[in-house]
Amino acid sequence: MKRARMRRANGNYMRYIVDACNLMFASSKLEETLENHGFQSARAMLVGMLERFVRAEGLEQATAVFDGSEKGAHRPRRAIEACGKVQLIYANPRSDADRAIIEMVEDAQRPGEITVVTSDKFIIKHIRGASAHHVNCRDFLRQMGRANRKAADPLRGEDPRKFMSGSMTQNEVDYWMEIFEIKE
After folding, report:
1. C-alpha closest to that of 21 among 11, 13, 30, 9
2. Cross-sheet strand order for the sheet of 78-81
3. pLDDT for 90-147, tens place per residue?
4. What is 12-158's CATH number?
5. Within 13 Å, how many C-alpha atoms sit on residue 131's CB side?
6. Cβ atoms within 10 A of the Cβ of 20, count?
C-alpha cells in the first residue's frame, strides 16, 4: 500500500486539504501579516508553516485551497510551492474554495483517507457525508506547533549519549568509511 494511503499510528491521515483563508483568519500571526503586509506575505508564511508541518509529520504533501478572484484569473489554477511539499490551488473565480474543497473530497477515490482543515460548517457537513475527516483550524494550529517543536527537538531534551550503546566495532567503522569513500 502506498504511503499516501496509509493511516499513521498517531491517528493522522496522510492527505491534508487546507481551507487556506479559513486557517489564515484562525491564526493571529497570519491575520496580522495579512493586514500589515498583504496577501502575498501571509500566503508565503502559511506555505512555510504547512511545509514545516508536512516535513515534521513525514507526509508527502498538503494542499492549500484559496478562493480565486477575477483579478487573479490569469493565475494558474494549480501551482506547487515550498519544494513540492505544499500544493496551492486557487478556486475558479466563479466559485469559491469551499466548493473546490468539497469537490476534491467527493471526487477522491478514498475520501476516508483525507483530513480537511477547516472550521467552516458548510464544508464540514459535506465532507462528513463523503466520509472524510476534519480538524478545526485552531486545533490544527496547535497540532502544527507540536509537530514543529517535536521536529526541532526529537530527543525532547534528553542527552544523546543516553541512547548510545557504546563505540562502533571495527567492522562498522570500515563499513561507514567505505560508504563515505574515506581513505585511511
Report:
1. 30
2. 78-81, 86-90, 62-66, 15-19, 114-117, 133-135
3. 887 767 889 999 999 999 999 989 999 999 999 999 999 899 999 999 999 999 999 8
4. 3.40.50
5. 7
6. 27
Identify which has the larger pLDDT, 101 or 9.
101
Write down the domain spans for the chain. 12-158
Query: What are the Cα distances from residue 132, in Å, to 38, 68, 125, 152?
Result: 32, 24, 10, 30
0.85 surpassed by pTM = no
What the block records as the C-alpha cell of 126 is 459535506
Helix residue ranges per DSSP H, the chain: 20-26, 28-37, 39-57, 97-107, 121-129, 137-152, 170-179
Distance (Å, whole) CA 13 – CA 118: 15
